[in-house]
TrEMBL record:
It comes from Chitinimonas taiwanensis DSM 18899. PANTHER family: FECR PROTEIN DOMAIN-CONTAINING PROTEIN, LIPL45-RELATED LIPOPROTEIN-RELATED. SUPFAM superfamilies: Sporulation related repeat. PROSITE patterns: SPOR. Residues 212-288 form the SPOR domain. This is FecR family protein.
Length: 291
């Protein structure tokens, strides 16, 4: 009897765990920051996100987010992205729901093949344009001239703030543009080459260019110093610049300052060279995380 109850309790707990999962950061081309409760800190792979968080990306940066129901969001450089509402449902027994706000920059929302049948109720606001997503692949961008949404797969409805008409995009490469201080344009078709060669690369991760990932196995050492104050100085400099530095004590009463979870040896080497040029870090030593 007790064994049966134990197995039943374990099964219920496992079921609940399967239904609840956080939205996490899968990969980052730094620099990028997480703003939470008015505090800014570098964005790192594995970070768990919540409603109210704002993500900021720097020059040449990229961010990949993994959602609980199997979709992914990619952000381009110099973007500002706010999570207004978010739950942890996996879309099986109850819908995953979110309200996301792209205040600036390029983004892409993609539903993977295995996740297409799951339930989702996602509204993405691209500055002045809101797109209702139930399972699709879209690319969008907000800049100084316009807000733009392009359908790559699926079906979405879009509506611009202050305009009564709702527009339906139901064919691949349909796109909608809302110019600044002008009426919205009619839904039109964009050339596939423009999407693949010009738009999509703006949100793709940059392998070999300092990419850090949740499964990254490489470490970059940027300083080894003899006192804690100097270590904290490098730590603060890296953190404020959007790099999630770590300090670790080593033998001889010394400290090493570095970055971890780099996706490949090449990513670590490129980042080390960049930090020496941009921040004047004294070292660029690449090691496996296990060392």
């Amino acid at each position: 009897m007790h064994a049966a109850l134990f197995r039943l309790s374990a099964a219920i707990l496992l079921s609940l765990a399967a239904q609840a999962a956080p939205t996490t950061v899968g990969a980052v081309n730094m620099p990028a920051w997480l703003e939470r409760a008015g505090q800014m800190r570098p964005l790192a792979p594995g970070a768990v996100l919540q409603a109210g968080d704002v993500l900021h990306t720097g020059r040449a940066a990229r961010v990949l987010l993994n959602l609980p129901e199997g979709s992914q969001i990619k952000l381009g450089e110099e973007a500002v992205f706010r999570i207004d509402q978010l739950n942890v449902a996996d879309g099986r027994s109850s819908p995953f729901s979110a309200a996301l706000n792209v205040l600036k920059g390029a983004f892409r929302f993609t539903t993977g093949l295995l996740a297409k049948g799951r339930q989702r109720e996602v509204d993405v606001r691209i500055a002045t344009v809101t797109a209702g997503i139930r399972g699709t692949d879209i690319w969008g961008k907000s800049d100084a001239e316009k807000d733009l949404v392009c359908l790559l797969e699926g079906r979405i409805s879009v509506q611009r703030e202050g305009e009564a008409e709702q527009h339906v995009l139901d064919q691949p490469l349909d796109f909608f543009v809302a110019p600044r201080d002008k009426p919205s344009l009619a839904v039109a078709k964009v050339a596939a080459d423009k999407v693949s060669q010009e738009w999509a690369p703006q949100t793709e991760l940059l392998n070999g260019q300092g990419l850090a990932s949740s499964g990254g196995k490489w470490r970059l050492l940027v300083a080894i110093v003899a006192n804690q104050d100097e270590a904290l100085g490098w730590y603060d400099k890296l953190q404020s610049a959007g790099y999630p530095a770590r300090i670790r004590p080593i033998s001889g009463n010394r400290y090493r300052v570095g970055l971890e979870q780099l996706h490949s040896e090449g990513d670590a080497k490129q980042l080390g060279e960049r930090l020496q040029q941009e921040l004047g870090t004294p070292l660029s030593t690449v090691l496996p995380m296990a060392s």
